[in-house]
Design goal:
4 helices, 2 domains, two-stranded antiparallel ribbon, extended, alpha+beta
Length: 80
């Protein structure tokens, strides 16, 4: 199934409900791959296999501003 969707003024897209119902999650991984974006459901056991994920994204989590090292350490300690 192919669907064409628009991006809102806030940079959001809508995944069709039919697709969302196929997965038991409301979180998705979006990866930039050369000339495309890949959207995959977040399945935690797959993340642990890769052993990497984004804990802090300055644009998403801090309005594009940087973060002090000590504050990043606090965030990282919460994830352990």
């Amino acid at each position: 199934m192919i669907t064409i969707t628009k991006i809102t003024s806030k940079g959001q897209i809508t995944l069709p409900a039919k697709w969302r119902r196929n997965f038991s999650t409301n979180q998705y991984i979006i990866e930039e791959k050369k000339d495309r974006l890949e959207i995959k459901p977040l399945i935690l056991k797959e993340l642990y296999k890769k052993n990497e994920y984004t804990v802090f994204d300055a644009i998403r989590d801090n309005k594009g501003k940087g973060i002090k090292a000590k504050d990043l350490i606090k965030i990282l300690k919460k994830t352990v």
